[in-house]
Design brief:
single chain, 471 residues, mainly alpha, 0% strand
Length: 471
Amino acid sequence: MTAVTAAAPAPAAVTAPAAAMNPRTRLLLHGPVLPTLLRLAWPNTLVMLAQASVGLIETWWVGHLGTAALAGMALVFPGFMMMQMLSGGAMGGGIASAIARALGAGRRDDADALVLHALVINGLLGLAFSGLVIGFGPAIYRSLGGEGASLEAALAYSDVVFAGAVLVWLYNAFASVLRGTGNMMLPSLAVVLGVALLIPLSPLLIFGWGPVPALGVAGAGWAVVITSALTTALLGWAVVSGRSIARFRLAPLRAAMFADILKVGAVASLSTFQTTATVALTTALVAAAGGPDAIAGYGTGNRLEYLLIPLVFGLGAPLVALVGTNIGAGQGRRALRIALTGGAVAFLLTETVGLAAAIWPEAWLGLFGDDPAMLETGAAYLRVVGPTYGFFGLGLSLYFASQGAGRLLWPLLAGLLRLVIAVAGGYAALVLTGSLAWVFAALAVALVAYGTLIVSVIASGAWFRGGEGRG
C-alpha cells in the first residue's frame, strides 16, 4: 500500500525520441549513475551549504548580543527551517518531481503549464505561513520555553523574517522548476549571490554604522528579507525569460496540474512537519530540564543537524530530477540504482560530519558563544547524537528520491517512528533519570531507526509494488 500513486511508466511511443531530446534530459536518462549524480550534486551541495550559512552567519552575529538573544534565535530557528524545508524540500520536491516526470515522458507542454501552478501553490502557502506565525508567534515560543528576554528576542526576529516569508516560498518555487529540469547551476548562483550580500548586510543592520541605525536582533531578520527578495528576482528572471527547459507561460489553471504537484508535495509536507515537531518538542524537553541556557546549548548543537538537511538536499535535488525523469520514462531499475547510490553517498558525508562533531564538539559550539552551560549541553548532545548522523543523511536522501518516484508512504512512516522514539523515549528518559544525556540517547536511537527503515523497504522494491514494473 502507498500513500500516493507514482505516474505510470511512459510507453516507448510517448517518450521523446533520443535525437529530439534536450541534452540535459538525455543525461538524466542515460548518463552513468554516480558521475552524473556527482556532476549535478556538487553545485547544488555548495549552494545549499551557502544557504544554510545564512542561519549560521545570523547566529554568529546575534551571539554577540548575549545568551538571551541566542536563545531567542534557537526558538525561531525550527520554524524558519521548517518553512525552508516545506517550500524547497517538500513542495519544492513536488514541483521538481512533477516537471521531471513530465519531461521524462516527453510532455513539454505539461512541464510549461506546471510552472504557473507551482507559483500559485507556493505563493498562497507563503502568505498563509506569514499570517500563521506572526499571529500565533508569542504562544508558539512560550510553549517552547521562551520567557523574558529570550521571548522578546524571538519575537523581534520572527515578526520581521516571517513578514517576508512569501519571498522564500517564491524563490524556492522558481529554483525547484529549474532543478526539475536538471539545471542545478542557476539556482546555485542566485543563492550564492544572496549569501554574499548577507555577510556584510547582517552586521550592518544588527549593530548599525554611520546613518544606519542599530536594529539589534530585528536587523538579522531584515537582512534575510532583503537577500530573499534579491534571490527571488534573479531566479524569477531566469524562468520567466525562458532560460529554462520548463518555461513560464500564462495558461488556464487545471486541477490535474495542482494534483500532480500536491500528491508529492502535500505528503512530503507531513514529513517536514514530523522533523520540525521532533526538534520543537525535544527543545521543550530540554527547556524543562535546564532552562534558557540549556536551550541555547541544545539549539546551537542541533543546528549542526539542521545543517545536514541542506547538505543532503544538495544530493536530494538531483535525486528528485534523476529518479523522476527515469520513472517517467519507465526506467524503474535505473531509478532504484540511482536512489541507493545517492543514499550511500549521503551516509558517508553526514557520518563524517557527525563523527567530527562528536570528537571535537567545542570546535562547533565555540563559534557561537562561550557560556559554560551552553557549551556543556551542546557538547553532550553532539557526543551522543553526532555518531548517528549518517542514518539521518541516508534516510533523508532516500526521502528525496522517493519524491522523484512519487512514493512517500515509507519515508512518512519512518519519520513518524523517529518522532515517537525521540519524543516519547526522551520524555520517559527525563522522567526516569532526570538526565539530558538519556534524552539525547533517545534522539540517537530515533535517527538509526529512521534511516534503517527507509533503506530496507526501498531496497526491497517497495516503489514497484501495486502494479508498476521495475522497467
